[in-house]
Amino acid sequence: ASSNTSIDDLTGETILITAGGTREAIDPVRFIGNRSSGRMGFAIAEAARRRGARVILIAAPTAIAPPAGCEVVCVTSAAEMQAAALKHLHEATIVIMAAAVSDYTVKAATQKLKRDQSRILELEPTTDILRELSTRRNPGTLVIGFAAETEDLLANGRAKLERKSIDAIVVNDVSSPNLGFDSQNNAGTILTKATEVAIPPTTKAAMAERILDEIKKLRTQPNS
Ligand code: CTP
Ligand code: CA
């Protein structure tokens, strides 16, 4: 079934959504970041609000302003996102992890690095927030992740679905130009344990509705 945006079918749900791209400081003025604009996460937040959900939006830096009506928590680093997400986890009936989270944090310098200093950055792995949220969730809470891939999309997506013990994963091909990062449009495949739903190239707003439709199906058909 296609989305029906006139129905408040998410009334009663509290959806915790992460969006944007985390930043890891290198020194007081520099960071390691990524190309996430926050548009996909914000589109899901906006659609979820319109469909009647309470939305807790944990936003790392983004290129755009968050949609109205959401409870916005601003964070910068992966560690801050982890803390904010854990703080609000037990209010959530659905968790959607759309943020692009750094896999590594940096041992940051306390003073601004000089041109002739430190060409080697000391990296430490960050926590897999999605996996931690899935492990610590309340019974009945649905957890959905994203995977931005450049190759072997479906196999990589299925592996992450398993490894992170989540209910669904939205896989996008970020190697295609004009889609995904920095774009108004997106395409992908929503994988659950039993299903595979392709979403052809469309606006992030329309893709958000499709993603929420699939989550709604998981609620009503929990064995999919
Ligand atoms: N994610 C997370 N915490 C991290 C890294 C990723 O919660 N430290 C989440 C992302 O928000 C996304 C999902 O995990 O919803 C998949 O992210 P991805 O980078 O594709 O997976 P990784 O497990 O980091 O694997 P890799 O980068 O090696 O492909
Ligand atoms: Ca990663």
TrEMBL record:
Binds 1 FMN per subunit. CTP binds at residues 103, 112, 146, 160, 164. The keyword Ribosomal protein does not apply. It catalyses: (R)-4'-phosphopantothenate + L-cysteine + CTP = N-[(R)-4-phosphopantothenoyl]-L-cysteine + CMP + diphosphate + H(+); N-[(R)-4-phosphopantothenoyl]-L-cysteine + H(+) = (R)-4'-phosphopantetheine + CO2. Its cofactor is FMN; Mg(2+). Residues 15-224 are annotated as: Phosphopantothenate--cysteine ligase. GO terms for biological process: coenzyme A biosynthetic process; pantothenate catabolic process. Residues 10-217 form the DNA/pantothenate metabolism flavoprotein C-terminal domain. Keywords: Decarboxylase, Flavoprotein, FMN, Ligase, Lyase, Magnesium, Metal-binding, Multifunctional enzyme. Its EC number is 4.1.1.36, 6.3.2.5. Pathway: Cofactor biosynthesis; coenzyme A biosynthesis; CoA from (R)-pantothenate: step 2/5; Cofactor biosynthesis; coenzyme A biosynthesis; CoA from (R)-pantothenate: step 3/5. GO terms for molecular function: FMN binding; metal ion binding; phosphopantothenate--cysteine ligase activity; phosphopantothenoylcysteine decarboxylase activity. GO terms for cellular component: phosphopantothenoylcysteine decarboxylase complex. Catalyzes two sequential steps in the biosynthesis of coenzyme A. In the first step cysteine is conjugated to 4'-phosphopantothenate to form 4-phosphopantothenoylcysteine. In the second step the latter compound is decarboxylated to form 4'-phosphopantotheine. Catalyzes two steps in the biosynthesis of coenzyme A. In the first step cysteine is conjugated to 4'-phosphopantothenate to form 4-phosphopantothenoylcysteine, in the latter compound is decarboxylated to form 4'-phosphopantotheine. In the N-terminal section; belongs to the HFCD (homo-oligomeric flavin containing Cys decarboxylase) superfamily. This is Coenzyme A biosynthesis bifunctional protein CoaBC. It comes from Edaphobacter dinghuensis.
